[in-house]
Amino acid sequence: MKRFHVHVSVKDLIESIQFYSTMFGQSPTVHKDDYAKWMLDDPRINFAISNRSSKEGVDHLGIQVDSEEELSAVQVNLNQATSSVVEQREGACCYAESNKYWVKDPAGIAWEAFHTLGSIPVFGVEEATDSLEKPALSKSGCCTPVFGKSGCC
């Protein structure tokens, strides 16, 4: 089953946690010093915030799936929408390890389709590379790849 994902960069994490906890009527599912996530069932959404970026607002959108088969189906749709799909296998970001596909929509908004493999104790991989296997990470505060590197986006 698919779950819509939104990641918002915020200035004040504590103030934002209070706001969204009140708005959603529940505390975050994950709460770290620099990150919080709500896994809501009504509406079915994975809503995350972090204060790692200097730019506030929507960092990226996404579709979370429960299996590799669902991820492959979403990948087919992404490949039909654009030839600029970036693959991340076992990507470490937002305290989770996931297999992902990244694209940018015509408005320039980054979208990820991902299947979470498990949790990790750190926000993510801090060092960036520009290889095809591990695309360079942006400085956005999240793990959005740098589009345009390696000729893939």
UniProtKB/TrEMBL annotation:
GO terms for molecular function: dioxygenase activity. Gene3D superfamilies: 2,3-Dihydroxybiphenyl 1,2-Dioxygenase, domain 1 (3.10.180.10). One of its GO terms (biological process) is response to cadmium ion. PROSITE patterns: VOC. Residues 2-116 form the VOC domain. Keywords: Dioxygenase, Oxidoreductase. SUPFAM superfamilies: Glyoxalase/Bleomycin resistance protein/Dihydroxybiphenyl dioxygenase. Signal peptide: none annotated. The keyword Oxidoreductase applies. InterPro entries: ArsI/CadI-like, Cadmium-induced_rsp, Glyas_Bleomycin-R_OHBP_Dase, Glyas_Fos-R_dOase_dom, VOC_core. This is Glyoxalase/bleomycin resistance protein/dioxygenase superfamily protein. The lineage of its organism: Bacteria, Pseudomonadati, Pseudomonadota, Betaproteobacteria, Nitrosomonadales.
